[in-house]
Amino acid sequence: MTATADALRDLHTLHQRAKAVRDRLLSGPKTLTVRQAALVVRQADLEKTRKALQDAKLGLSKNEHALQASQAKIDDLKVKLNLVKKNEEYKALQNQIAHDKAAMGKYEDQILQTYETIEAQAAELAKVEAEVKQFAQDVDKLQKDLETQAVSQTAQLAEIETTIISAEDSIPIDQREQYRRVVRQLGADALAAVEGGACIGCYTSVTAQMLNELINRDALTFCKSCGRLLYLADNEAENSRASGAPKGKAKR
Asked: pTM for the whole thing?
């Protein structure tokens, strides 16, 4: 006799559990990397928002200085206007004053618009800062949670792997290397149930001889198509016998 269907089924379950834990151990850092990359993007956007506000404030300062300079120039021209004696010079100064006042009007409009822009950008900056801060806290919490989970998952994986080694005692020594070769190739998918007369791993039908071997447990049976170690699904042996499958050893 060799390994029972229950023993192989349990061994298959153990391999699947081990894979699930390994997947979680791998997916955690990948998820963290994605979130950290997203945080870097958000921080870069925050810096752009902050710089836009700084640029707006710088533009406001320049326009205010330009407005003050225009006002000072107009004041100076008004003094000169009272001192000129020639009509041509008087008109020229008046034209210059009118031109500078028009320029002042433009500066005043720009200053007003910039104040509105700064107010909106300051509100946007505060919003983005809060969002980035919260996102950074979430990423930090995720990292700590994953680190804690990794400790537990590593211990869980070690326990499962130890149980797998014990469960592999049901594999005949002369076929153990073949089994291990399949495990190296297919991992958790190294075993497959036979249901409805087919390997569930690749859905290839098994022969009557293979089914007979599975029912009588004469030797380990590997799928001729995908190489998986086969075992009968729940109640499959009873159903196979009821349908008239061979009960004795298959003739070679």
From this structure: 0.72
